[in-house]
Amino acid sequence: MNSKITSLLRWADDALILGQRLAEWCGHGPVLEQDIALTNISLDLIGQARSYYQYAAELEGSDSTEDTFAFHRDVPEFKNHLLVEQPNGHWGVTILRQFFFDTYHFYLLEGLRKSNDATIAAIAEKAIKEVSYHAQYTAEWVIRLGDGTEESKAKMEEALDLMWMWTPELFESDEVDSEAVTQGYGVDPSTLKEAWTQKITQVLGLATLQVPENPWGQTGGRNGNHTEHLGFLLAEMQYLPKSYPDAKW
Asked: pLDDT per residue over 158-167, tens digit each?
């Protein structure tokens, strides 16, 4: 598999897996408005994943389709970051996980808008309009919860303890990223860290939350090494197409 297809799958897998996680909130949100908001963000992310998968299938030039990539790969073949596969937990955990990813995602798309690949640039141009809203929405919720009641603040501190160790992986670079930069169609994730850190620090400050000092992070997702949570997520998401692989919809 060439580096461009791998890059497309990485971006798509992040969006698909997080979209699937958010879809679990449908019908379970704390109030109707937020239930619908998370469901809409989920749909945005799955739509972005479809665009990347469709282009990857086109480049691969085989019988692959977007459904092949989404429903007929196993855990080690997925290249999403570990952050996005983590369980939803309570509302604060979901919001903080989303805020961390949205902020990273925004800066990634800013770079991809400048891609010399017209299709990637077009996907990023459309997606960044959606992700700008996602990032604003989750930042406002982080501030509201962190600077809210004693209970909401305690829950956000708990969420920080759970989610922070998954964030360093967002900025790891490897030969696939180097190839993407050299060829002009991608972004080096390590170059996004400074802007991400500044934004995270600013919002956590407004939320009266402390940025964790522990720099250690769990990694492996980009290489197909995942937590046990992804297997359960895929088992549910892929059950129908794997049970009836020849079905036409």
From this structure: 999 999 999 9
